[in-house]
Structure formats: structure tokens, C-alpha cells
Amino acid sequence: MIQPTTTHRRSRGGRPLPLCRSAALALLAGATALSGCGGPEPVERPNVILITLDTVRADFLSCYGSTSGATPGVDRLAAAGTVFEDAASASGLTPASHATILTGKFQYNHGLRVLAAGSGFQLDPDQETLTTAFKAAGYRTAAIHSAFPVSAFFGFDEGFDEFESFDTTLKKKKDDTKVGWDVRSYQRRSDDTTRMAVEWLNEASQGDQPFFLWLHYWDPHDPVKLPDEADIERLRYDPGTGELQDEATVTYAVEVRYQDGNLETLFQAIDDAGLTDETLVALTADHGQGLADGMRKHRWGMHRMLYREQTHVPFILRGPGIPAGRRVPDQVRTADMAPTLLDYAGLGDFSEPVDGTSLRPWIEGEKEGDLTAYGEQINGYDHNAGMRKFRPDAAFLYMVSDGEWKLIYKPHMPGTSELFHVGVDPLEERNVIADHPDVVVGLLADLAERNPWVTAPFPIQGASGASGSADALNALGYSAADVEGSGDWWWTCPVHTDQRLDRRGRCEVDGCGRITISMGRWTE
Q: What is the pTM of this model?
């Protein structure tokens, strides 16, 4: 049964292994029957379908080397298009990450940084997004979503003609330490989402207006709406799940594979509607999940962190002008999705500069090299982040990775910051921050240039109505002092960390000249 919704109408080394050669060739053979060798030829004003998978790690898809069971639906898309093997998400939080996917901007530029606070939870309606760009170009725009965190509450409905999503509000959790939403009532399973998408595509295929459709899937996020028992039994005992030991990871793998079956239904419907050769299909995820291996390596089995288990996500493109069977090993970012889709749709760039870049030169083999990835978690000022009591070091996380090195800087507990040499340690198992001070300084300098720091609670703004997080929090009896810790923040130099300055600027010690970074103490 579909849950309550509302429709708004408005005008190198160590990288993941690819599929084995025989499997890849078999998939490619099947794909070329539909797409033609090398993929469809470019068309003017192609349709665009953006699929975002919630909480899906790349390494649980067989086209990314999964050992947790086959995912033939996504594999089929991968074989018919281009796979980016090392794509980095900007956040382990659904709204913030989706805002980056849609705008091409990192959080310090698009402003959506938390799930619940006095502000900072909603995408400004003036932000240019994929949706508003396609709408301005004469596209029909629609969204079909599977859970509340990508709803109008967070500002994602701007520019959509049709917005099939969930309307609800926040509530106080039983232990009074956080606020959240009714997960059981305000999500739908992937079979329902796919049925709605297929109905919409069949109707849209009869018209002559190009469309932009955003589909969001949710299943692996939590075990609330599991597949039917027969599907669970069929999927959990596949030989591919034999290496999984704990029940939570098995359940996660089952939900990934069940969702994949519904994606296969979706892709077949695109073919049956005659849309394949004129439609760009893009698939990515907002973030991953720690699971048992994340608990073993990093003491965390969920999201809201920035380790590889949370940030390594799928990134696949198929459609007009996209070569089939190509794999790109370089590090890219989910921020690159929006400019890439606008490029291949022939719409050019956003009207203002963004942080992402079109990946067309990488896709067409004209360019190679890693792009610098950024990520953050502002858990300390997020009313929803009750996990801080288990991981106080995760109250504030800022991540930067140049593809060879990855720094997770914790300004409130700098001694717990971490550096991984991902070029030789792609699973991020060894913190080598004490061994490479020059690398740390260089990556801190990158963060300093970005100026992403949050050093005070998000101010309560005059939000009202269904989208008013501040009103919802006030109604629950919360104020900033009720749920947020206190931070004593100052500025220091990446090199001369003994400096304690009261404002951001440049270090003047011995003519250093480096831009200062945030540092502080945090009390829950």
C-alpha cells in the first residue's frame, strides 16, 4: 500500500575491480542490442532521468566488484554506458547530499547542511538546480520519491511541474535527545516507486515535450519496509551472500538486490516505451552505510560519517553520446553530476559558477586525473544527530581528498583527525596522520581556501508553514540550548597551531601568510 503523499504542481592502484571480462562482455552484448555499439548517437534535447539511490554503497553492486550477490539491473545500465569507479559523495546525510547532486555545489555554497535546525536545513528557492535549468529550457519536470528527506520540507520541489513526494513534519524522539520523522509511515518500497515511475513514463512517452524525471529510491536505508518473505528467502541465499556473516549486512544486501530487481523493471519499461535512444539515464547515491566492516575499521556502522563506507557511491551514465562499456578510474564527485547532465543535454553551464565540472572530457577520453573531493558533517548543530553521544569526535567533520590522500579534519577535537593514503590504502584502514605532516598542511590549506567552517548554531529564521523546521522545533519545545552543545571556537594556522586568533585571516608568524583554519573545544 502506498503511504500518504502529496503532489505539488508548479511552473591506479587499489581501486574497485570491474566486472570480470566474460560477465562484462555478456552484459555489453545484451546492452548493444538495445543501445547500439558504443551507445546511442547524440540527439537534440534528450530526455533525462536522474536516479538517486539512498544509502547504497558502490561495493554492494556487482559492476563495482560486489561479493554480496548479483545486481543485474544496475549491471545492465553500467554495461550500456560509462561507469565512474571512484565517485565521492559530499555528505552522509540525505538532504545535504542531494542538494549537492542537484546544484553542483558543495554545502558551504548551497547552504543545506543539516536535517533539523533553526535554519540551514532547506535549499534556498533562488538556488539554481538541474530542475530549474531544465524547466527554463522547456522541459517537463517531475519527481517521484520514496521518503521524506527529499521532500518539499527541504526545498526540493522548486521548479517541478509534478512532485510526488511526502509531506510531514518533525517529532521528538522517545529519549528526548533528538528530533526526527516517522520513518515507518513516510517511505515507500521500491516496487511502489517503480510502478508509479513506469506509469508516468508510459504517459510521458506519448507526448513530444522532453522531460526531466528525478527518481529517488530508499529501500536499503533501513529495514522498516522489507521485501515479501518469498523475496527475502530468494535473495538472501544467493551464493553471492555467502561471505556475509552478520544479519544486518545480509538484510542490507537483500534490500539492495530487491531494489535492483525493481530498477531492472524500470529499465525494461524505458526500452518498451521506445525511450532508450533518446534518454540520458544517470544513477548515483547520496551516501553509503558503515555496516559490519565499517564498525570493524572505524567504529561506526551507519552513515553521518565520511569514511569510504559512507562516501564511495555509484556513478553511472547511459544515453545519447555516452560510450558503452567505458570505465573511468579517476576520482570524481557527485557535485559533477549536474554540470555533466546539462552538458550532454546541450544546455551548457549553470548561469553562475558551481563547484562541480562536466565530466564529458573524462567520458570521451580527452582528460584524466583525479578531481578534489570535499565532504562535511555538521552533526554538532543538527537536532537530528543523536549519534554524537556515541561518537563525540564526529560532531564536526570536514573532509578533503585529492585522490591520493584523504584528510578528515575534526576542528573541535583536532587530535582525533585522520589521514588516509588512499592511493595504497583504498579501504582507509590505517590512519597515518602522524607520519605525513606536510600532506596534512597541504590539505588543511585546501580547506582554509574553501572556508566551510560552521562556528555557531544555525540561527532561527522566520520559517513558517509546512516547511518551517524552526516552527516544528519550537512546537516540540526545543530551543538551541536544549539540544545543542556549546563550542568555544578560534582560528589558528595549519602550521603554527599554537596560535589562537579571534578572527579568520592570515598567519603572521615569520611571514607565513597561510589562511587560518577553525579550531575549538566542544561540550555536549
A: 0.90
